[in-house]
Design goal:
Blueprint lengths: L13 H7 L2 H4 L3 H17 L5 H20 L11 H13 L12 H37 L4 E6 L2 E7 H26 L1 E2 L15 H7 L4 E2 L3 H6 L2 H28 L6 E2 L18 H25 L12 H25 L1 E2 L1 H9 L5 H10 L4 H17 L9 H7 L7 H4 L2 H7 L8 H23 L2
Parallel strand pairs: 3-4
Antiparallel strand pairs: 1-2, 5-6
The structure holds arginine.
The site of arginine (ARG) has 10 residues, from helix 6.
Length: 465
């Protein structure tokens, strides 16, 4: 018989029971559920809503259940309706009728809202730690490659020279924003909903602030109806994870491309690649491909949450039970993706020569050639036209800007002098771009210092939480 069976004359249909049950997935919140109940029971005792001895008995009972679940001495009963009912049932079985006082001034609606918030708070920090590791790996590699010249691309066509350090630091900026977003989501998750009751709070003289304090929440929810029906924090978290996955997926796509023989800019470590069952020569970037593939799945989880919420009247509706599998799936898949991606990235070999060769053959210094003319007084559009003519000449005569003679240059414009060759050297082109955010070594070193400072700041912030 169900705990709520009082007004029913029949047992619930067996298949309805299966359909209704969430224990198979919400059991992973047992720690949050029990910790939340311990705080609730403590507060009930302190406020005189239940007797001090009863409160202590309940707290001890709950601590015992937690310890036994951790050690494996107690197993989750798959027949229970959900984790909340399971814990309460075990408690009552163990300590008798006093256990029945735990649910005073509480509903499963505010209880589940609390559990999911606590779970998300924990996992946001976990994901942030993994992203910080990824950022450290990027910084470390960037430090090794401040002189590794390569071409930057637009439309996947060679465009202008940058360095490998500058290139991967673009991703560092994305992951820093991800950290920032997660931190922001944490703030809005860090609001304690217990005391909202089923939807209209309670008539008992509870102390919500005390529960918040016991559970390390920054504040309490301001409206009981919102308190039980808000899942914005889960949506925000799933959205943060989706954007984070999108960033990794773009990075993964580049790594896949760059591991092909056509590019051959990178080689992955054997531990982070796989072979083919039929083609002996193959070394496949499966890890990167799976990161890209799982991105779609995390978007799906976000979609599940968005659609789940869009038509719900206030306050709690059972539809909201569907929030858990979606958010758990997004968390699980993002966490392993970040972890494995970081290791794959940290162990890959960057082929400096291949990067430089690709940068040398594609007129990526043509802008600098035009800028040379502009710096000698020519309007940019006129210079652009002349260099266009030079590039066409080179293509027709199988030359590059570096292998043109000075005479050939001067046949296009008298402005050219011998120092043009220095002006179009790739290293000159890179190091001339010393503006904030540019690829020059000096600028890149400043970027690296800034990312490191942001990481230290993020480390400190996470310790304060
Ligand atoms: N298992 C439920 C969930 O995950 C717990 C809340 C149930 N509340 C209720 N009134 N049926 O949402």
């Amino acid at each position: 018989m169900k705990m709520w069976a009082g007004r029913f004359s029949k047992d619930v249909d067996r298949r309805v029971n299966d359909f209704n049950s969430s224990i198979s997935f919400d059991c992973r919140m047992y720690r949050q559920d029990i910790t939340g109940s311990i705080a609730h029971a403590t507060m009930l005792g302190e406020c005189g809503i239940i007797a001090k001895e009863e409160s202590e008995k309940i707290v001890d009972g709950l601590k015992g259940i937690l310890a036994d679940l951790e050690s494996g001495a107690l197993e989750i009963n798959p027949e229970a309706e959900d984790i909340h009912m399971f814990v309460e049932e075990v408690l009552t079985a163990r300590i008798g009728d006093t256990g029945k006082r735990l649910h005073t001034a509480r509903s499963r609606n505010d209880q589940v809202a609390l559990d999911v918030r606590m779970y998300c708070k924990y996992e946001i920090k976990e994901v942030m730690a993994l992203v910080r590791n990824l950022l450290s790996a990027i910084v470390e590699k960037a430090e090794e490659h401040t002189d590794t010249v390569m071409s930057g691309y637009t439309h996947l066509q060679r465009a202008q020279p940058v360095t490998f350090a500058h290139y991967i630091l673009a991703y560092a900026q994305m992951f820093l924003r991800d950290l920032d977003r997660l931190f922001d989501t944490y703030r809005r998750t860090d609001v304690m909903p217990l005391g909202s009751g089923a939807l209209a709070s309670t008539t008992y003289p509870i102390n919500r602030e005390r529960v918040a304090e016991l559970l390390n929440f920054a504040s309490v929810t301001a409206n009981s109806i919102d308190g039980v029906s808000d899942r914005d924090f889960a949506l925000e978290f799933a959205s943060d994870l989706s954007i984070l996955m999108m960033h990794m997926s773009r990075f993964a796509e580049e790594i896949i491309l760059w591991c092909s023989s056509e590019f051959a800019f990178l080689e992955l470590d054997d531990a982070f690649s796989t072979g083919s069952s039929i083609m002996p020569q193959k070394k496949n970037p499966d890890v990167a491909e799976l990161v890209r593939g799982k991105t779609g799945r995390v978007y799906g989880d976000l979609q599940t949450l968005l659609v789940m919420m869009k038509g719900l009247p206030l306050a709690y509706n059972k539809d909201m039970q569907e929030d858990k599998e979606a958010i758990f799936d997004a968390i699980d898949n993002t966490k392993i993706a970040v972890e494995v991606f970081t290791k794959m990235f940290a162990t890959m070999t960057v082929k400096k020569d291949r990067l430089r060769n690709a940068a040398s053959g594609g007129f990526i210094n043509a802008t600098d050639c035009a800028d040379y003319l502009v710096k000698h007084g020519m309007p940019f559009r006129a210079a652009y036209k002349i260099v266009g003519g030079i590039v066409a000449f080179c293509i027709a005569n199988d030359k590059t800007l570096e292998t043109m003679t000075l005479e050939e240059y001067r046949s296009f414009s008298e402005v050219f002098e011998a120092d043009i060759f220095d002006a179009i050297r790739l290293d000159t082109c890179v190091n001339g771009r010393n503006v904030t955010g540019g690829p020059a070594k000096e600028s890149v070193l400043r970027q690296i210092a800034a990312v490191k400072a942001a990481l230290e700041h993020a480390d400190a912030a996470s310790e304060n939480k």
